[in-house]
Amino acid sequence: MTPRKQPLKETPGKLIAVEGLDGSGKSTQIYLVKRWLELEGFKVAFTEWNSSDLVKEATRKGKKRKLLTPTTFSLIHCTDFADRYERQILPLMRAGFIVLADRFMFTAFARDAVRGCDPSWLREMYSFVIQPDITFFFKVPVETAVSRILGGRPELKYHEAGLDLGLSTDPEESFRLFQSRIYEEYLNMAVEFNFTMVNGSEPPNVQQEKLRNIIRQKIDLPRFKWRDRK
To answer: 201: Cβ–Cβ under 8 A, 6 or more apart, which residues?
Structure first.
């Protein structure tokens, strides 16, 4: 696949994203990174997938009534992302913050492709987006990630389980198949988008120390210190 043309980057801030399957441990690790940077006195902000108030209600209703086709599902998520990108991510980066993103456009590339959307179309739709300075991908066996989710959820939601794809009528089996396909999409993107691979099966403290070392190596952290206000 031809590499997508990246938008010009003219912001003093930095962008760090985490990607991976549900249950891979990425959310825990990015939260720990956030707390570490805050406690060290750095300018840091956080954003997460599918959290814009602009389309939240429309998404909820569409899912509840099972009205969303793969294309409309993808367009709604892109609208959500674009709203957060323009209102939160870019302004914060222009203000010199380190922005931490729990999921980025790569989530759409993986999930929407599995649902049948054309990968080239998806990349073109998100062509306005700056690629992260670091994208951590938490690599963990699919069965491990699935077990973590199933162990903490009383019931899987319809779209979360991928039941709209008709892979299986059993929610748990559908979820396994859905996550397996998403995982393959992520692996196919690893080189294209220069993912930094993280062993999601290692102890959390080991993972965290490795993340911090990589961030120290790739980002000039002292530049993002809050200045003392007198």
So the answer is: 140, 141, 144
